Each structure stands twice: as C-alpha cells, then as structure tokens.
Amino acid sequence: MLPWRRLLRPLAVLTLAAAALVAPTGTAQAATTTSSGWNNWSCKPSAAHPRPVVLVHGTLGNSVDNWLGFAPYLVHRGYCVYSLDYGQLPGVPFFHGLGPIDKSAGQLDVFVDKVLAATGAPKADIVGHSQGGMMPRHYLKFLGGAAKVNALVGIAPDNHGTTLLGLTKLLPYFPGAEDLISTATPGLADQIAGSPFLTRLNAGGDTVPGVKYTVISTRYDQVVTPYRSQFLDGPNVRNVVLQDLCALDFSEHVTIALTDRLTWHEALNALDPANAERTTCASVFD
After folding, report:
1. Stated pTM of the model
2. By the 8 A CB rule, do 52 and 125 touch?
3. Is the pLDDT of residue 22 over 70?
4. How far is the C-alpha of 96 from the C-alpha of 196, rounded, in Å?
5. Range 126-145 burial, b when 16+ CB lie within 10 A, else e
6. Helices marked H in 222-271 — which ranges?
7. Which positions ≥6 away from 176 have C-beta within 8 Å?
8. Partners of 162 in the beta sheet?
9. Fewest CB within a 10 Å sphere: which of 6, 28, 220, 251?
C-alpha cells in the first residue's frame, strides 16, 4: 500500500469520529455528581408533573455536560429529573455513547426501572439529544419500554441516521475504514444512514402505539443531515423546526440542546401539553 494511503485511512476514521454526532464537551467533568437538583433520588413527582423526566445525552456526551442548562430549567419548574451515562468504552472517560446502540438501550431500560422504582411513578417521559433522541426508540420497540414511557422528545435526533453532509459516502474509498469504525466505535457505525441497526429500528414504522413523540430540529444542523431525516412518521408525532417558531433562531446541532431556550420551551410543551404555551422568539425570556 502506498504511504499516503496508509495515512489517509486513520485520518478518515479520526475525522469521522471527531465530526460524527458531536456532543457538548462542556467542562468534561466526571459524570458521577450533579448539581442544581437533578438526579435527586428522593424526589417525588407532584400532581402537576406526575412523571419523572429521564435525560439521555448524545454521542461523545455524558450525563452532566449535556444537560447543564436544561436539567436545572426543568427542576426549577417542578420536575423530578434524572440523567444517565450509557455506551461507555473501556478506558474512555467522559465521552460516552460510543458502544453498540442496542446495548445502550439496555442500559436505558435498567435506568428507567430505577427511576420508576424510586419515584413510584408508573411511567416516565424521556428527552434525548442526538443519539439520545433516537436510541430510546430501540428501548420502546424491542425492550418493552412502551409500557413505561409516556412521551419521547428528541432534540436533533438521528432517527434515520446521518450522511454527515455526504462524508459517509466517501468511506468505501478508504479500504478498511468501515470495519475499523464498526470495531472501535460501534455506536458511530450504527448511526450512519442505512446501517443494519437503523434498518431494523425503522422497519415496520417509526413509532410504537401508546407513546407520544416530538422531534425538535434546526435547519442549521451540520451533523444529522439532511435535517429532515430526523422527522418521524406515524400517529402521535409532532415534528418541529425551530425556525418555523422563530426565524431568528440560529442554533446548530450542539447548541440546540445545550443553550437554546426556545428548544427548552418547546420540549416543556411536549412534556405538559395541557398547559402548553406557544413558542415564539420571545420564549427565550421565559
């Protein structure tokens, strides 16, 4: 093999891994403690907010950094809020969501059971970012999660995978790259449009009965592309584009979950539709 091709192969893999489904690194603090009141295992849901909310981070994220803004936002409004780490690889701290997604869904299954046991609630709501908005669908469809979940809110979820602006189509030109990604970071391989994991997940329909689905997307998403591939089709589905609510919102894939208060407001509406208030540009002040 020519020397330049030896260099391009790992470079292509590293570039994909770094770009693919980037999640906020934030302070990269250990995801074992939280502040501002979430992961409070003595919290009991109120009559106004009877279901605990489980937050599911994105690829390369963790249970703390992904939710430093949104988790306190929910707690301040009276919700019992919990977040988990999933998809860890041995020897890789802080940056999770890289393991096989079906195994990650099993971790979510165990965590939701723990939350329901602690709170006494019969069902939970789930809010997830990027992979965290798509992975719970495996839990709902194949692991019995539909009986335990009222609503799934996906923030920029890769429900039908991503082309990474067409970059994934270049992989066949780098012999061995696809195998290396599948072996080293199977959670990334599972999220490429057309992967066996996504083919199975979406076969027979995007949704399962009994669960309400909301997808919140941005036209400026540079990671889950095309952005409309995030949408779900089926009953009890609402697909939302932020710019249809406020043309001045320029959030992209990371900031839509990390700092965008319009996204938070719309997610809040999905969690409590009976008391929903229309999301507009002014909702940033709510």
Report:
1. 0.86
2. yes
3. no
4. 21
5. bbbbbbbbbbbbbbbbbbeb
6. 242-245, 255-258, 261-271
7. 9
8. 192
9. 6
DSSP 169: G
Separation CA 61–CA 14 (nearest Å) = 17
Q: Whose structure tokens read 């994105």?
A: 58
Cα distance between residue 42 and residue 82, in whole Å:
11
Residues 6+ apart with CB under 8 A from 189: 178, 181, 182, 195
- Residue 192 per-residue DSSP state: B
Cα distances from 105 to residues 119, 134, 244, in angstroms, run 21, 10, 32
Measured CA to CA, the distance from residue 165 to residue 61 in angstroms comes to 21
* pLDDT at residue 182, as a whole number: 58
CA torsion 13-16-19-20 (nearest 10°) is -120
Residue 237's pLDDT band (cuts 50, 70, 90): very high
Tell me the two tokens of residue 94: 């802080």
Phi, psi of 277 (to 5 degrees): -125, 140
Whether the CB-CB separation of 257 and 24 falls below 8 Å is answered with: yes
The alpha carbon dihedral of 28, 31, 32, 38 has a sign of positive
The confidence score (pLDDT) of residue 286 equals 85
Here the tokens at position 44 are 């009991």
The whole-angstrom separation of Cα 275 and Cα 55 is 21
Instruction: Output the six-digit token pair for 157.
Output: 């979820």
- Peptide bond between residue 226 and the one before it cis (omega within 30 degrees of 0): yes
